[in-house]
What does this fold into?
Amino acid sequence: MTAEQRLFLVDLQRDAILATTSSPLAPLTQSDQEDEVTDWLRGHGMSDGRKIAPTLVRSGLDTQRLEKVVEHIPTEPLTQWGDKGEFGYAHGGRMTVY
It folds into this structure.
C-alpha cells in the first residue's frame, strides 16, 4: 500500500468517526441512502451488501464516497466492514465480502 493510499484511509477513518458521532440521519434519509449503497455494492459484485449498508451509511460512506474508495484502493484490503466482521476487498471495481 502506498503512502497516498494509507493517508486516504486515515482520512476516511477520521471522517467515519466524525460521522458516527454527529447527529443521526432522519430515518427516511437513512433508509434511502442504505438502498443506494446496497445497489452500488451489488453493482460492484457484493451480493449481500444489504447486511453492511446501514453501517456504511452511518459512517458517512455514501455512493460518491465509495467510488473514491475504489479509485484510491483498487486492490488492497479496504477495512473490516459491517457488524459481523466481513472483510472487504476491491478488485478492478468489484468488491467481495468474506
Observations:
- Residues 3-97 form one domain.
- Residues 75-98 have pLDDT under 50 and may be disordered.
